């Protein structure tokens, strides 16, 4: 793909001049195209709040009303000149374009009853969790469902249904009455949303390490996974039920192994102990386990619940800009446990 500068005043026929809002919009389209392979939507461009320097060096904001006009001109211009880039693409970082996730953090599938909203949550979840598999098996519903079930078993996908009786206590946290040795106690129990948020955040707590290891074992049982060492060398790791360790091999076959790091050694690495046996493989496995992998919460019949009652103060925290790690991240103190809480950035909500 060649890079070429081609600026003139004929915005519909050739690339726009420097120091114009048109060029700013077109350059943003080019930047998006280098990542996605296609032009962005008008709404996406407007949300970027683009600005540019005029001939005097003054910063000016792009008029939103010009975006759709220039986007259409850009599409017409590039339609007959496919596979070319006509400007030095603006850095995605400058435009606040991170390497794109196939899906937004929050989305709702809508339409009349019977149009396949719940049916399509499998595809939407796999767009987030395993887009390559989805692309390779887009026409194989059985394979997609099996892969979806793998993520459900690994607790990377959680499904719930809203209804009129569904409450904040079911979704976030609440007090539940239990009997212990004949005495009534009222422990605070986490709801479905708080539990998946806790799973998405790494902690060195022993119970969470055990859970993470179990989830990883489930994910690779008889299904070799390719990882890379710090030297960028690829290897496959798999697990056979009942074994005390993992099998690392250079090919997708657990019988031709090059290392067998024990699970207890991986546990020590997760606790911060520097590995002395198969260090490169142990570090790679541990780094994968603690990496911020995406988690998906599917909320069926979301319109049947009282949203403000169910989400409570978290309705603001689910906004992408308010997620943990973002510049405008917010924390709240939960009313029952009195814990400080924020929504992890690797949680994806899909409503139907």
- Please report the number of helical segments: 13
Head-to-tail CA distance between termini: 41 Å
Instruction: Count all strands and give the number.
Output: 16
H-E order: HHEEHEHHHEHEEEEHHEEEEHHEHHEEE
Q: Helix amount, in percent?
A: 25-40%
Residues in β-strands, percent: 15-25%
Uncertain runs: 1-12, 89-102
Quick one: biggest sheet? Answer: 4 strands, parallel
Radius of gyration: 25 Å
Q: How much is the average pLDDT?
A: 80
> What structural class is derived from the secondary structure elements?
alpha+beta
Strand order of the largest sheet: 3-16-13-4
The dominant shape is globular
Overall description:
The protein has 352 residues and is of the alpha+beta class. Helix content is 35%, strand content 16%. It is built from 13 helices and 16 strands. A hairpin with an 8-residue loop joins β10 (234-238) and β11. The chain is globular.
Overview in brief:
The protein has 352 residues and is an alpha+beta fold.
Question: Which terms would index this structure?
Answer:
35% helix, 4-stranded parallel beta sheet, alpha+beta, 352 residues, 4-stranded antiparallel beta sheet
What is this structure's SSE topology?
Layout: H1 21-36, H2 42-47, E1 51-53, E2 59-61, H3 64-79, E3 106-108, H4 121-129, H5 131-136, H6 141-153, E4 157-161, H7 168-171, E5 173-175, E6 178-180, E7 183-185, E8 188-190, H8 192-200, H9 206-220, E9 225-228, E10 234-238, E11 247-249, E12 257-259, H10 263-270, H11 279-290, E13 295-300, H12 307-311, H13 314-317, E14 332-333, E15 340-341, E16 347-351
Parallel strand pairs: 3-16, 4-13, 13-16
Antiparallel strand pairs: 1-2, 5-8, 6-7, 9-10, 10-11, 11-12, 14-15
Helix pairs in contact: 1-3, 4-6, 10-11
């Amino acid at each position: 793909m060649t890079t070429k500068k081609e600026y003139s005043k004929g915005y519909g026929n050739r690339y726009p001049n420097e120091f114009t809002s048109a060029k700013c919009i077109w350059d943003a389209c080019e930047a998006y195209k280098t990542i996605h392979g296609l032009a962005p939507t008008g709404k996406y461009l407007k949300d970027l709040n683009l600005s540019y320097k005029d001939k005097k060096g003054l910063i000016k904001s792009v008029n939103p009303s010009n975006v759709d006009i220039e986007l259409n001109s850009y599409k017409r211009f590039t339609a007959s000149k496919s596979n070319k880039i006509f400007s030095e693409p603006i850095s995605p970082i400058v435009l606040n374009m991170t390497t794109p996730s196939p899906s937004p953090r929050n989305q709702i599938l809508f339409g009349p009853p019977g149009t396949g909203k719940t049916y399509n949550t499998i595809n939407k979840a796999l767009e987030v969790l395993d887009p390559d598999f989805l692309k390779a098996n887009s026409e194989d519903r059985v394979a997609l469902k099996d892969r979806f079930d793998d993520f459900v078993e690994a607790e990377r996908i959680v499904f719930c249904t809203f209804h009129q009786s569904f409450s904040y206590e079911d979704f976030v946290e609440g007090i539940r009455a239990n009997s212990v040795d004949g005495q009534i106690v009222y422990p605070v129990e986490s709801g479905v949303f708080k539990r998946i948020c806790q799973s998405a955040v790494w902690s060195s707590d022993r119970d969470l390490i055990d859970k993470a290891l179990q989830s990883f074992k489930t994910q690779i049982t008889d299904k070799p996974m390719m990882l890379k060492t710090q030297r960028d060398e690829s290897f496959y790791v798999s697990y056979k039920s009942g074994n005390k360790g993992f099998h690392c091999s250079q090919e997708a076959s657990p019988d031709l192994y090059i290392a067998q790091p024990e699970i207890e050694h991986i546990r020590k690495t997760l606790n911060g102990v520097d590995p002395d046996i198969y260090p490169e493989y142990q570090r790679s496995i541990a780094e994968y386990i603690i990496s911020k992998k995406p988690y998906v919460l599917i909320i069926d019949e979301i319109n049947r619940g009282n949203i403000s009652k169910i989400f409570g103060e978290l309705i603001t925290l689910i906004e992408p800009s308010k997620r943990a790690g973002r510049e405008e991240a917010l924390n709240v103190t939960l009313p029952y446990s009195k814990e400080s809480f924020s929504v992890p950035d690797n949680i994806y909500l899909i409503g139907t």
